[in-house]
Amino acid sequence: MLEVKPQPGVTIAEAARRTGVSAHTLRYYERAGLVVTPIDRTSGGRRRYREIDLKWIVICTKLRATGMPIRSIRRYAELVAAGPGNEQERLVLLEAHRADVLARLAEIQENLQAIDHKIDVYRGSMAAGDADQLWAPR
Fold it and tell me: Which one in 34, 36, 99, 124 has a CA-CA gap of 20 to 30 Å to 78?
């Protein structure tokens, strides 16, 4: 009797569920060179994602969600895949991205203050009963 060994890892559908991205995105990340290790395949050619793959994909999604360009994520993945010896370059890349994120957060905070001010103006005008005096183009 032929023994069938279970395949290690999870299917692309399970990987998508666990990482919060679509199967299409998982395939794209692989094609774009954003993954650190080659994704395992079954004898039938189906992808099998290991825990390390899933953790890396989550990191990639967080970098993307904070606006890191694909080329920068690719470069970071290349550095990680290359192994020890380039930690300083990885750090510089991540620190530069962090600075970009902080600058965008500051801009968003400034914009939020403007929105809060407008909300206060509307609430004040409505409470005073003179909301009809708010500026409106004719």
Answer: 99
- What are the C-alpha distances in Å from 125 to residues 30, 74, 115, 129? 55, 52, 15, 6
Q: How many residues in the chain? A: 138
Would you say 60 and 76 are in contact if contact means Cβ atoms under 8 Å apart? Answer: no
**Contact partners, residue 18, CB within 8 Å, separation at least 6:** 10, 54
pLDDT in tens, 45-79: 999 999 999 999 999 999 999 999 999 999 999 99
List the Cα angle 126/128/131 in 5-degree steps.
40
- Asked whether 57 and 35 are in contact (CB, 8 A), the reply is yes
H helices present in the chain, as ranges: 12-19, 23-31, 51-65, 70-82, 87-128
List, for residues 43-54, the tens digit of each pLDDT value.
Answer: 899 999 999 999
First to last CA, the chain: 85
* Beta carbons within 8 Å of 109's beta carbon, 6+ residues apart: none
